[in-house]
Amino acid sequence: MQYSDLIAPALAYSNRHRQDNRAALPNLTVLQTMEVSEFDAVVYKPVVCLVLQGAKETTVGDQFVTLHAGSALIVSHDLPVQSRIVSASVDKPYLALIVSLEHGMLRSLYDQISSVSKEMMPHRSLAAGPADTKVIETIGRYLALMNSSVEAEVLGPSILREIHFRLLISPIGGMLRNLLSIDSHASRVAKAIVHIKRDFRQNLSIPELAQLAGMSQSSFHGHFKQVTGTTPLQYQKDLRMIAARDLLRAGHHSVASASFEVGYESPTHFSRDYQRKFGTAPSREGTVALEPA
Predict the structure, then answer these.
(1) What's the pTM value of the predicted model, to 2 decimals?
(2) Does domain 3-179 have CATH number 2.130.10.120?
(3) How far, in whole angstroms, is CA 226 from its chain's centroid?
């Protein structure tokens, strides 16, 4: 099976899902867009993204990735990135299959692959390359379950587990193995990421994060940047900015209330950081609620 064989069923799944939410398969999303876009800040969750048509660019820190049809992207940690669609049209939309990854499933599989090479990759949260043939075939079998709710219920969990397995042992799966290796820098940084995500509205303590990761402060700072492409403070700031943008676009928060909601003490400081991040003032973002009189 080739990636191009999945274009028709992916389009069918996308159309069916829009019409009937019950048609959705767990952990599977089809991204379809007919227009190119500018860079936008988003937070990638742990996923595998298989591009079937069009092209997309993603950047995190000093890492720049271009995904064309037939490429796969794996994200191991929650990761603030900048991305844009660079090839899409009405006749040939950008089309990608996205499978959300479950850490518990990866963990249980990792413990069972002792006979498989556990060669690691550089400690990065994002890896890309040509999609592995067996990964394509397994995702294709999972997508085919949309035609039978019974098959989806009975066979879906085992095929989803197989997708996780195929990714773990794939050429670009080494970064997942890094994450799952108990003593790896990636797994230690992951503990700090969980803490930052949970408390991103609070002031960060680098000494506490380093202690949580079991590293010295200098070592923690270096390995955090190697894994995420950014510093702990910038990672937190990116989470705050993206959360604030979503609040402002929803139209229920003023600039001041959004700044306080995401942890800023000064709306002026917030506006300055927002302008630097997104290139526009927060007051110009979507339908911003008015300040109370």
Answers:
(1) 0.87
(2) no
(3) 17
